Structures are given as structure tokens and as C-alpha cells.
Amino acid sequence: MSIQPHRTLPAPGGASSGNLADILERVLDKGVVIAGDIVINLLDIELLTIKLRLLIASVDTAKEMGIDWWQNDPFLTGGSNREVEEGGGGKPPKELSERLDRIESALSALAARDEQRELP
Amino acid sequence: MTSLYTFAVVDNHTDTLAGADRQRRLVDVGDIAAIVEPVDVTQFDGEQLEHNLNDREWLERTVRHHEKVVEDLLGRTAVVPMRFGSIFSDESGLRAMLRENTEAFKCLLDRVRGRCEWGVRILADGEQMASQLAPSAKSATSGGDYLRRRRAELDAADQVSAVAGRIADEIHQALTAVAAEATVLQPRQPSPQLALSGAYLVAVADQERFITRVNELHGAHAGVRLELTGPWPAYSFISADVGGPRR
């Protein structure tokens, strides 16, 4: 067995010098959420999180595969907030979230398929 | 009226921000306090936010700053991170929220006090694992031998993900045993190699033992390696929603 030790142990200073993907994974949709007197309302925070996830997924994977439709999708880009608000309530972010999950599954499947060897 | 970007809630110590940027300050309410900075709220609003989210430089700068401020508090005090982008329109709103939710924050602070989060990604190299399960067809000595070996290779490839999943679960259990709490993260980036991404809340006193365990498990299985990140503030163990101030 010849596995090189590989670990990304931090310098004693901590993790903030780590790569952006690690930081995004930790920071973006974690932490205490406050309802109430907050400038960005919760709906926007959900949208923000979802868009950020799309953006991150896109950077390393989707763009390489030529999947960048979301950049032109009016539901996800400009004007989406208004559309969602007219839709009312917290439902649209859930739909977006489900949609995102489907996209991510599709991406995983695509990536997995690329990995598989072809039959002779 | 200045809007306040709120990074985290901490125990109310006076020395928490020693040496920090002058912009940064504590807004304290009894036993707890929030770490805040004044912020230009327009960058987080409406069309400007849309624009900024597509600006990788802005995104990276803003997210890194959030993480840096929260991380600087580690080791000084218990830290409960706030969601990225938590901005209060003024100090009175923030104080009302802190007063209203003091007990909830104290519970969260107790949960993370003296502990840090570590991240472990368990990565499985499918090809390397498959080659352990079946010899390569390329070394076949005859046509019939080639077909037999090729079939075995393909069968091995089919088994790999199940084997990788089982090994990943074992590793996760072994690390969980050294941690105070553990959770499986949903991967943000789809990756065929990623078998499991775990987060572990580890007491500072157990940290060395945890890291030693990670190193032991790394390389214990052919084709499986571990990536360790940390120490982080307990982001993955604080997903609570708390209510805002009543108006």
C-alpha cells in the first residue's frame, strides 16, 4: 500500500487561511438565523444562500460541463425577489431549494458517469 | 443611524476584542454580547446584492472577513456564529433581540464552550479500490483470460461505491467516538470521490487524540484518504433559529 499522507492541518493561527471552498462550506448556510428586526429579511437570506450555493457549484463543476443556464434564468437572477414576493410566503425558496437539490444530483450523476469506464 | 453587521454572539468579557480593529465592537446585554461592525447595507440589498453575488472578489472578501472575525474569537471565548449576512438596522433592534433570546444563546454558548469544530472529508479513489478487488485485465495472458479479468474488473467497479460507503461509515463512527458531537455534512460541491464529509465538535483537551485518530485512519484502507480542516468555530453545530424582538 503506498498512500501518501495527505492532510490539510492548519497552521496554529487557524483555519481562515484555508481554501475558499472550505470556508464557504462552513460559513454560508450555517449559524444562528434571526427573525425580526434585521435589514435583510429571511426570504432574502434564503435566496442569498441558494444563489451562493449555485454560484459555488458552478465555479468548479457546472461551468466545466457547460451548465450555466442558471446565469440566464430569470427566476434565479434579476427580478427574482419580486417574483418570489408576489408568490407570497416562504414557499418559493423551498421550491428553489428542491430544484437546486435536483440540479446537484444531476451534476453528481454526470460526474459519476464520466468516472465510469466504458464497456469494451 | 448605522446598520450593524453581526458576526457572532459571545460571553460578555471585556477583553474579547483586545487588539481587534477599531470598527469592531461589543454590543452587550448582561451575560452575553454580540460582535458587530458598522456596514454599508446597500451592498446587501436588492439589485446590488444580485450584482455582488456574481462578483467573485466581493464574495470571497466578504465571506473571508466573516470567517476571520468569528475565528479570531476562538480560544478567547465561547463563540456562537451568526448566519452570514445578519445585519441589524440599528443597535436598539440588536439589543432587543439579544435580550429576548438570552437564554437560548446561553444554551448554545454552553454547548460550544471549550470545544472546536473539525472537518474531515473521506475520499475514495474508485480506480485504486477496484484494482485492489480485481487484477487489471491489461496483464491478461490470453483472449479468454482477458475477458474473464475484464468482467472481474467491471464487477469490482460496481462494488466500489458500496465498499467505499461502508468504510466511510466505519471511519465516521471511529471519529465520532473521540468527539463530543458529530454530524454528516451535505456536500456543497458534487464530487464522485467524496464518500462522506463529517463535522466533529471536539473538546480542546481531546484535540490531539482526535488528530492522531485521523492520521491513523488515513491510509488504513486502500484507496481511501482523509482530509482534515480546522479548528473552526462550531458552525456546523449551530443551526438554530431564534426569534427576533417583538415589535
Report on the structure:
The complex is a heterodimer of chains A (120) and B (247). By secondary structure, chain A is mainly α. Helix content of chain A is 52%, strand content 2%. Chain A contains four helices and one strand. In chain A, α2 packs parallel to α4 (91-115). The longest helix of chain A is centred in the last third of the chain and has 25 residues, at 91-115. Chain B has 247 residues and is of the alpha+beta class. Helices cover 40% and strands 25% of the residues of chain B. Chain B is built from seven helices and ten strands. Chain B has helices at 46-53, 56-73, 91-100, 102-112, 126-133, 143-176, 207-217, and strands at 3-11, 25-29, 32-39, 79-81, 87-88, 115-124, 181-184, 194-203, 224-232, 241-242. In chain B, strands 1, 2, 3, 4 and 5 form a five-stranded antiparallel sheet that branches. A four-stranded antiparallel sheet of chain B has the order 7-8-6-9. The relative contact order of chain B is 0.16. The mean pLDDT of chain B is 86. β1 of chain A pairs parallel with β10 (241-242) of chain B.
